[in-house]
Structure formats: structure tokens, C-alpha cells
Design a protein that fits this description.
Strands 1-2-7-6-5-8-9-18 form an 8-stranded mixed β-sheet, sandwiched between helices. A 7-stranded mixed β-sheet has the order 12-13-14-11-10-15-16, sandwiched between helices. A 3-stranded antiparallel β-sheet has the order 3-4-20. The longest helix has 27 residues. Helix 8 links the parallel strand 8 and strand 9. The protein is 43% helix and 18% strand. By secondary structure, it is an alpha/beta fold. The chain folds into 2 domains: 242 residues, Aldehyde Dehydrogenase, Chain A, domain 1; 194 residues, Aldehyde Dehydrogenase, Chain A, domain 2 (3-Layer(aba) Sandwich), CATH 3.40.309.10. It starts with a strand and ends with a helix.
């Protein structure tokens, strides 16, 4: 095994399981020996991480951009650095309250006994992070796991190798290997990692791989949190402020060139507003990105395989009769840069790949509906999405959409923003994920909630124990009548 820094592992595939398991056992032994870390130690860990992220913000953005070919520095600072720092600030501010035992009431017959919930760290947590936001989606679950008092093994995505290498060295300089260890390697290492008997396994990525991760974890009865994806719809009501809605949808779609798990995946809008939507989308793109080719703010597709996947989606849609509208303000040629001009796909067939698979790129299908119930039914006939966006002013229609559709999260008259609210849980439902994190929910995800009953010295429990007599019979009658 080659080790660079105290907490970086590059296990050879032939011995991956043994090396990974040895690291897990070292972390578990350290956890059992030291016990749950006190509040001061957890806050110190978070403060050290926060200071290091601030100090290395530009280096983080550079590593990510090198992996993508071009990633907007400002987007990286907003979506990778700011979100991580905000998560640390929130956890640090509230951690003392989260850790405090929570008193809960007991029924009359159990009094004067008392009850409480104790929050305990699980032990050793495994985190598998994705390539699309390679720093943020590795660090955010790490923040929650450390706040909850756990040891962590982290497996970053091999599709963003420069960022993975950076994260490995970055964390090795902050934490000893028995606290945080970063594992580098490809799919074989990832598969071996998922089969380890962690106390909890946290995975962010595609639904297809999520199924494999869950199968691997099941061998050890390891509980999982799966942050997946899906096709997040945008529904525009008849009374939607169309200009503002389009600007929000275009921004949400083109952030990171659409390589965002909660990016708007398709639009459902009323009949008669389709052409106005297209015209407003053209203006919105021109406002955000007057040029595409040499614009450092417009991000490239992460690799050639994903670029060609998107081209195939569009070619199939066109062959099946959809109208393709390219939103390319300067009419530039983008060949060779893995930059894909924003595309609207108008009236696509329902059974093509574009409408079955998560798009993960700057391609936006548009379909129309006659009645709002049609849009709701369209969403409900498909796997439950990670996010849903509704635009409209009528509170009754808004509430109808929110009540009758099921999605991991939602934003109204905006896209993406629910993920930034630390007090909201972030996670999927059904095919878009299992479990949630962020804020206190993240702390609880990585904690064991131990229920504890504290018996009083003077109590009536003896009345329900043999030998049963008249008082026991009377007590039982009273209990059964309540």
C-alpha cells in the first residue's frame, strides 16, 4: 500500500479489502478507546476544517476546474466553498443543543419514572462522494459525521482525480488517519469500500450505483443514506410570473452546466405559453452568458463520455420528432472544449432516453399541459424526484401541487434554494434516495438515538409483577380502560 500523508490510502486492487478493513479496524479501535468526543473536541475539529477551507479556497476551485476542463471559479466559490462554510457555521452554533439529552414525557402509569433520548456517535462512518460537486459533496457529510462524534473513511470520485488528490492531502493535514482517512482508487476500490462493515454508509451519486451500494451494505446490515437524483420537474402555473420563472429555471439548469442533482430536469407549462417561454429563455441565457466558448463562467461537461451521452440524448430526441432550440447567443462553434450550448427540446416523446434518464447537462425538455391536474399526474406517473419546483401565485394551487406530489424537497417560485437552508432536511424519497442530512437532521443521521428510561426509587412497578393479587387486578383494569 502506498501512503501519502498520514490519512491517504491507495490500496492495490488485489489487496484492497484487507487494507481497507485494516484501516476500518484501526478507526474502530481508536473510537472505542477514546469514547465519544466531547463538545470542545468536536468544535475544535470543525473550526480547524473551517479555517483550512477558507485558506485553500482558491486551490480548491483550481483543482475542480482542472478536472472539468473549465469550471467557473465563482460557481465553485458559491456552490463548493460557501455551502461548506455555512454548514460548519450552522453546526458549530447549534451543536451544544443538538448533543444535549432530550427529555421526553412518560405516561401517567410510568411516573414518577423519567425518559430521555441520548445522542451517541455511531462509530466509523463511510462516505462515498460524487464528481459533480466533488468538494462540497465530500465535505458536507463529513461535517455532519464529525459533529456527531464519528470517525470517517472517505472515498472521493475517481472521475475528478485532481480534486480527489487535493481532498486527500487536505484532510491528511488536518486529521490523523484514525480520525479521518481518504481512500483513492477506481470502481474496484469503491466496490470493496462499500462492502466494509461500517456503522453507517453514506453515498451520493446515481440511482443505478446506489442500488449496488445498498446491496453491498446489506451483506453487513450496514444502515445507508443514499443521496441519489432523478428527474426534477418544474411546473409553471397559469399565473406564474413567466419572466422571473424562466430566469430562475435557466439559472438553475445552467449552474455547473446542468451537472447538478437538483437541476430542473424538465418543464411542464400551460398550453399557449410555450413560445413565450422559449423567447424568454433565449434572453435569459444571453444575459447570463453572452458568450459560451471563451467564457470562464460557463462550465464544461466533466468528460468525453458524459459529453457524448448528452449528444446521443439530443440526437435521439430530434430523430423522434422533437424540435431542438439552441440557446447560443453569439452563435459560436464549441467543438473541442466539451462545452455544450444550452438546448431546449420541445415536445419530446415520452419514451426516449432524455425523458427516462436524469439528464445531468444543459438540455431542458419542455412539455405543455391543459389543466394543472395533468401536470400533477405526469409527475406522479414517474419515479419520485429529488426536487420539484412550482411557479405561481395562487396559494391554493401551490398547496395542491405540494400536497399531491411527492419529492425529496421543493422550492416555490425559485429553483435550487431549498438546498441552502440548513434547517431543512436534504434528501430523496423512493428512487431519488433514502434518508437526509444538513443541519440537525445530518447530526441525527450520523447519531444513534438511544432511548433511556430512568426508574424512580419509589414506583408502582411491583403491582404488575407476580404473584398477581387484588391490587394487580385493579391496576390492570384501570390500565385497560384508559
Amino acid at each position: 500500500m502506498s501512503v501519502v500523508g498520514a490519512a491517504v490510502l491507495r490500496p492495490a486492487s488485489s489487496s484492497a479489502t484487507d487494507e481497507l478493513r485494516a484501516t476500518l479496524e484501526r478507526q474502530r479501535a481508536a473510537f472505542l478507546q477514546a469514547g465519544p468526543p466531547p463538545l470542545a473536541e468536536r468544535l475544535a475539529d470543525l473550526a480547524r476544517l473551517k479555517a483550512a477551507i477558507r485558506d485553500r479556497a482558491d486551490a480548491i476551485a483550481e483543482a475542480i476546474s482542472a478536472d472539468f476542463g473549465n469550471r467557473s471559479r465563482h460557481e465553485s466559490l458559491i456552490a463548493e466553498i460557501f455551502t461548506a462554510l455555512a454548514g460548519i457555521r450552522h453546526a458549530s452554533k447549534h451543536l451544544a443543543r443538538w448533543m444535549r439529552p432530550k427529555r421526553v414525557s412518560v405516561s401517567l402509569e410510568l411516573r414518577p419514572g423519567r425518559a430521555r433520548i441520548l445522542y451517541q456517535p455511531l462509530g466509523v462512518v463511510g462516505i462515498i462522494s460524487p464528481w459533480n460537486y466533488p468538494f462540497q459533496l465530500a465535505i458536507m457529510p463529513l461535517i455532519a459525521a464529525l459533529a456527531a462524534g464519528n470517525r470517517v473513511m472517505l472515498k472521493p470520485s475517481e472521475l475528478t482525480p485532481r480534486t480527489a488528490e487535493f481532498i486527500a492531502g487536505f484532510l491528511a493535514g488536518l486529521f490523523p488517519s484514525d480520525r479521518v482517512a481518504t481512500v483513492l482508487g477506481g470502481p474496484e476500490i469503491g466496490a470493496a469500500f462499500a462492502r466494509l462493515p461500517f456503522d453507517h454508509l453514506f453515498y451520493t451519486g446515481s440511482t443505478a450505483v446506489g442500488r449496488l451500494v445498498m446491496q453491498a451494505a446489506a451483506e453487513n446490515l450496514t444502515p445507508v443514506t443514499l443521496e441519489l437524483g432523478g428527474k426534477s420537474p418544474c411546473i409553471l402555473g397559469e399565473d406564474a410570473a413567466l419572466k422571473g420563472a424562466v430566469e430562475s429555471i435557466v439559472y438553475g439548469k445552467l449552474l455547473n452546466a446542468g451537472q447538478t442533482c437538483i437541476a430542473p430536469d424538465y418543464v411542464l407549462l400551460p398550453e399557449g405559453k410555450r413560445e413565450e417561454f422559449i423567447a424568454l429563455a433565449q434572453r435569459a441565457v444571453k444575459k447570463l452568458y453572452p458568450r459560451l466558448a471563451a467564457n470562464p463562467d460557463y462550465t464544461s461537461i466533466v468528460n468525453e463520455r458524459h459529453y457524448q451521452r448528452l449528444r446521443h440524448y439530443v440526437d435521439e430526441a430530434k430523430a423522434r420528432g422533437a424540435r431542438i432550440v439552441e440557446l447560443n447567443p453569439a452563435q459560436e462553434t464549441l467543438d473541442g472544449a466539451r462545452k455544450l450550448a444550452p438546448l431546449l427540446v420541445v415536445d419530446p416523446a415520452e419514451d426516449i432516453a432524455l425523458m427516462r434518464e436524469e439528464i445531468f447537462g444543459p438540455v431542458l425538455p419542455i412539455r405543455t399541459y391543459r389543466q394543472l391536474d395533468e401536470a400533477i399526474d405526469y409527475v406522479n406517473r414517474r419515479p419520485r424526484p429529488l426536487a420539484l419546483y412550482y411557479f405561481g401565485e395562487d396559494a391554493g394551487k401551490r398547496d395542491k401541487v405540494l400536497a399531491r406530489t411527492i419529492s425529496g424537497g421543493a422550492s416555490v417560485n425559485e429553483t435550487l434554494m431549498h438546498v441552502v437552508v440548513e434547517n431543512l432536511p436534504f434528501g430523496g424519497v423512493g428512487a431519488s434516495g433514502i434518508g437526509a442530512y444538513h443541519g440537525e437532521i445530518g447530526f441525527q443521521t450520523f447519531s444513534h438515538r438511544k432511548g433511556v428510561f430512568l426508574q424512580s426509587r419509589f414506583n408502582g412497578a411491583w403491582l404488575l409483577r407476580p404473584p398477581f393479587g387484588r391490587l394487580s387486578t385493579l391496576m390492570l383494569k384501570l390500565l385497560l380502560r384508559r
